Amino acid sequence: MEALKQRIRTSGRALNSQVLLVDMFLNNQVDCALMDEIGEEFKRLFEAEGVTKVVTIESSGIAPAAMTSLRMGVPMIILKKATSVILSDGILQTEVFSFTKRTSYQLTLKTEFIQPGERVLLIDDFLANGEAAMGASKLIERAGGKVVGIGAVISKNFQPGMQRLKEAGYNVKSLAEIVNMGEGFVEFADNEGEKA
Ligand code: G4P
Question: From the CB of 27, is ligand 1 less than 6 Å away?
């Protein structure tokens, strides 16, 4: 998605070879007009899949997922991150380890929001190691839903997440695929080496 890549070039900042700061438009300050374009693009990419729910993970996935849900005309469900196991009916949890943040949490789904047979589009801001997306997919499937698509706003394809999800059979799309980055530069999959 050219507008997104352009925004990464102008407002993103690669801190090192692993971490891209996008606080200016995605993680802290949110450019809702850009999120709206992102929602439209995800709709275009996944509208043939018969999506009945958009699912995301708090917190930074919410803005792009909300716009996608609005554009597709289906509800958005938020998976919460709990610090401990909750023993309660109607709740499914799985532990997710974040390599980037070096912490783990209990990804939590209230099952009343995913009915058996539901066709789910999972949307998140970053795809890095794929731990969050794998955990979320597991929860949706345990609730009886089918993950018909996974959309990442930004994927770091030099980390294993994209490959892992594809090998697991998921239909994964990223709007900005980064193949290499380092202090001051970001290179996208179509080999456009650009400053960021
Ligand atoms: P994974 O889920 O793909 O395995 O990724 P990982 O554990 O490595 O990343 C966990 C958190 O770090 C996620 O945020 C993810 O969005 C964020 N993250 C990963 N790589 C980058 C990056 O290069 N830049 C930025 N800005 N964030 C990155 P989170 O813990 O879910 O936080 P949030 O959604 O509440 O913001």
Answer: yes
